[in-house]
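Model it.
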Amino acid sequence: MKITNKMGLPEALFKAVSIRKRTPGRLSATTMLNGIKQILLTDRHWDELEEDVVDRFWAIFGTAGHKVLEHEGAYDFTEEYMTHELDGIIVSGQIDNYNMKEARISDYKFVADYKIKIRDFTDWERQGMIYAWLLIKNGFEVKTCRFIALIKNHSKRDAKRDPFYPQYPLYVHEFDVTEQRLAEIEAFMREKIAEYKKYREMADDLIPPCSPKERWDKPTKYAVMKGANKRATRVFDTLPEAEKMVADNGAGYSVVTRPGESVRCQDYCSCCDFCNFYRDNVANAEDENAAA
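Modeled.
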């Protein structure tokens, strides 16, 4: 992958961006969380991919933050790289911190407040359980796994007026490592590996697209507006529901369609230029919206 510096930022920032080249036939804990199309296209087109320093701005701060947190206690090791073979594929993971006395994994995340507000930690739990699986396969005991999130855009004002908003700029999500969870994560990895083997020889356009969840899809919504009000009276998942409300309320009400979007495809996928789903569904929709 080529890293560009279109804004001419200081050399120190440019050098701080480091991207480890993916090794074919090896799947990391974080890679496995992606859709199979994204995994394979990234592997195949690695030398053609391009990102700018600006696009990796928060990754730089994440790296710096990890450096600060690297100081080990007497029973800790940090940034440890683990591997184990499963179904002919090497599974790997770099673990931020493991405390041998507590048998606990800790992983640090730099996130936007939205991640905490939606309370969906499926990706973290899978990542943590893959780390736990790797440690156990390498002879370590693991009892718990915790993710320590540093919220980069935390708002004290929102915390005061909304009890469901994260109350502090740091949030901890912790869970137990159980036999059931270990069995579930191994089944998940076997399924991902089976997909990887099935599609790795297929042409780019024949690989099935990432799932809506993997694309971070936001579905189309239908807002019922009253007169010139800027805020919707109500938002519906289907057009017939919205139209019924307009009909029931009479003149002065209208329906505004809020088009859905594949957030990851649009803004967070470096291999999108090689993806036919992106070209046919996302890029074309963006062009149509721009022309409207």
